[in-house]
Amino acid sequence: MKKIILSFVLLFSTTIGFAQKSDLGNWLIYFGNKQVDSKWNWHHEVQYRNYNAIGDLEQLLLRTGIGYNLTENNNNLLLGYGYIHSQNYTDNSDSKVNINEHRVYQQFITRQSFARVKLQHRYRFEQRWIEDIDFRLRFRYFLSINVAINNSDIIDKTWYGSMYNEIFVNDDQVFFDRNRLYFGIGYKLNKTAKFEFGYMNQFLNNGNRDQINLITFINF
Questions:
Q1: CATH number for the domain including 141?
Q2: Contact 60, 41 (CB under 8 A)
Q3: Which CA distances in Å does 182 have to 7, 49, 108, 199, 200?
Q4: What's the predicted TM-score (pTM) here?
Q5: Containing structural domain, residue 150
């Protein structure tokens, strides 16, 4: 366990040094899931997003929700809430503007397995209150693929490849919001913890942004 944690610390340190010399963003992400019983689960997450290295905050995202398994481990409905604090640069300036957002969301996740390959589909509908004056609706579709590398399945002590694509669409104004494409490498330590390191590109209406992601998943 100590060796795994040390490896990710060193990897993160390398990421920080690389980000300071480029336009790459840096996202630190924690996903937690508490299985209350065979049907109910509690999801919670923290995402600390930076324009470059630590100290240049882009967004702090806190999200939680209560989920219900329609079938064991494969189909889950969830009702959740998110608080998002953003610090956005104004055009052609080093100045930032602070934006606070509250979200209520509903989602459905379905999972499939094909030997080494794990698929996950997530459909999420968001109601967004931005600065308490702007209300928006948004739909998101997320497809992820994980492939076991050194074992026939993603079990304890398994390296795996990870890829996902997520598209965001709005109810009005600009229909296309963004698209996120991600590639990474992960390590499942045991049934409780797994880690991922990857690269993500966000395609936006006015351009695109690169991100380096360091992700921790904890089940308890």
A1: 2.40.160
A2: no
A3: 21, 15, 21, 6, 4
A4: 0.87
A5: 2-219
